[in-house]
């Protein structure tokens, strides 16, 4: 087998050197795994891609869509203070009726966007 390392709880293989004999030994195990994955998908327990690539049962949260009014308010808060305290984030989230974590991430993403565009503007020649 090839060199491997752990990443986020899963092993990744740099290179897979499998002989025909070892592939023959793996075939029944892989066929059983594939049957189980397809069965889970048919039963609607989870999408096949989730079963193949991640922890069983762990689903990614849906992306939040902000209303235009919420974006206007968030941008206004950001103009006043790009680094709000935890209490301020909680208050803003309550006012806008979004989860606190969603608002916190919005501020992080907005700061990162500003940082990235500032880097790009350094090389901008009028």
TrEMBL record:
Record GO cellular component, one term: nucleus
UniProt keyword Nucleus, yes or no: yes
Ranges annotated as DNA-binding: 59-118
GO molecular function, one term: DNA-binding transcription factor activity, RNA polymerase II-specific
Renumbered residue ranges of the record's region Disordered: 45-64
UniProt entry keywords in alphabetical sequence: DNA-binding, Homeobox, Nucleus, Transcription, Transcription regulation
Superkingdom of this protein's organism: Eukaryota
Residue intervals of the Homeobox domain: 57-117
Compartment list: Nucleus
Pfam family, one: Homeodomain
Gene3D superfamilies xrefs: Homeodomain-like (1.10.10.60), lambda repressor-like DNA-binding domains (1.10.260.40)
Annotated POU-specific domain residues: 1-38
PANTHER family registered for this protein in UniProt: POU DOMAIN, POU DOMAIN, CLASS 6, TRANSCRIPTION FACTOR 1
Family the entry assigns: Belongs to the POU transcription factor family. Class-6 subfamily.
Name of the featured protein: POU domain protein
Organism: Chloebia gouldiae
